Amino acid sequence: MKALERVYVIGHKNPDTDSVCSAIGYAHFKNNVEKGKTFIPARSGDLTNESLFVLKYFGMNPPLHIETLEPTVEDLELKNPIFVTPDTSAYDVAMLMESRGIKNVPVVSKEKMIGVVTESNIARVYVRRLKIEPLVIHPVPFDQLVRILKAEVVCDYMKEKTVSGKVHIAVDALHVLLGKIEIGDVVIVGDNEPAQIALLEKGAKLMIVVNNAPVSNRVLEIAKEKNAAVLRVKFDAFGAAKLINLSLPVTLVMSKKFPTVTKKDTLEEVKEIVFTSKIRAAFVEDEKGRLCGVITRTDLLKDVRKKVILVDHNEITQAPEGVEKAEILEIIDHHRLGGLSTLNPVFFYNEPVGSTSTIVAEFFLKNGVKMEREIAGILLSGIVSDTLFFKLSTTTEKDRKMANFLADVAKLDLEKFAKKLLKEGMKIPEDVDPAELLKRDVKVYEMGEESFAVSQIMTSDFSTLLKEKERFTNALKTLKGEFGVKHFFVLFTNPVEEASLLMMDGDQKLVEKAFNAEKKDGLFLLKGVMSRKKDFVPKIGEVLRRER
Length: 548
Known about the structure:
Layout: E1 5-13, H1 17-33, E2 37-44, H2 49-57, E3 64-65, H3 90-100, E4 104-109, E5 112-118, H4 119-129, E6 135-141, H5 142-149, E7 152-156, E8 162-169, H6 174-180, E9 186-189, H7 193-202, E10 206-209, H8 217-225, E11 229-232, H9 237-245, E12 260-262, H10 267-276, E13 281-285, E14 291-296, H11 297-300, E15 307-311, E16 327-333, E17 347-350, H12 356-366, H13 373-387, H14 397-410, H15 414-425, H16 434-439, E18 442-447, E19 450-458, H17 462-467, H18 469-483, E20 487-494, E21 499-505, H19 508-514, E22 518-520, E23 523-527, H20 532-546
Parallel strand pairs: 1-2, 1-15, 2-3, 8-9, 9-10, 10-11, 12-13, 15-16, 16-17, 19-20
Antiparallel strand pairs: 4-5, 6-8, 7-11, 13-14, 18-19, 20-21, 21-23, 22-23
């Protein structure tokens, strides 16, 4: 049965709670209304304390963490690999290659790949035999040798069930050949009763009679006396010798060095490995090192893309890495229009409300899809977080009504739950690295030739942050270079005071022109600025546009 096509529902980089919750909610909605696909909530970045609190509160698993939307090995339709075990003969591998039309066969022991047999390995078996050296059978089960030779078992009195030793072809004068024979050897002989008898009496344990030659009762009696076996084949001596060459186990033929990849490797990385490999293939191993697939050049010629639905953003600078190599199916958002372009027409729903979770909840209602208590709680959390419980200027009447409806479905006291959630979101661990804190919720914007980043941190106490001012200032300088922007702003937003403290590394005149701001301890105090999206970015953008 073919696996369902995967579609990832994913928010912006450094996901906030609305980004996480809307991804979970919309994936749940799509799985209810669209069959034939599986919609997977995903994220690009670490979860905030607030998001972790929400997930734990409602018993939900975190969205799948995806580092890049570039196509990876797991996006290929990998078939179950064809492999052999260490005791398989080279002959059986050669037959497998011919019947399945494959050039490389993995050798697997205890679910782990230990080698690979290639066409070159098989050919090398013949090349080695061109040297003037004795033909040898490496230990091989008697039954397996019979099968490879397609032989008739004329008699079998051997006590051992494994055949090994030197192989002699009766082409020399009999007295010369008898001088070479040792006890336990294998002989290949034709229609020559005296030679057959003499070779068995000398100690040959296995006699292979070629060209379907007759075997007399006298020969059978001696074979019984000597605990030997006699096989009869239709081939000539040369044909029998060729097949004996291929009876050796693959462990003596295989290459022990082989290219491996994981399901998380990008196809660009895999192409480099496959196209530079001598065998023009790579073997896929899972997280436990078990073989789970084989990739060839043919697999890499296909146009493979991750299928994604973007929620809570539509700007290329905020999208997960590799989005330009993904196939975008839908965009669900509540922000300004950005510069994201797509190869094909997409379903794009954008509404100026306070939270993407509000939009997602509305999809449930409009389409008559039942909403479980947990999903209602998840979407409620997205609304409360992104509107700061209706305190941000982006809040609409629709957000308020939807939040109250979701609270009823989730059986929650809206005000008590909102206060608990925001309290969790404002917790700042004492030992946190300032740079890591600033990157938790940061968005990059491009306006003309100018680019700037805005990080936002919720807090209930400005004084605590002022004590760490120097550490944050140093982190800002580092992040400005890391993000490659001209200006880096940080809004420390206090919902209680309905104001934000602004720290920045860049041109301070932008802020002075955009806001009637007062300075406090070297920082800008922006009264009434609560929303990055509506209160801050548009005003900075307006100044930049005027001064182009």
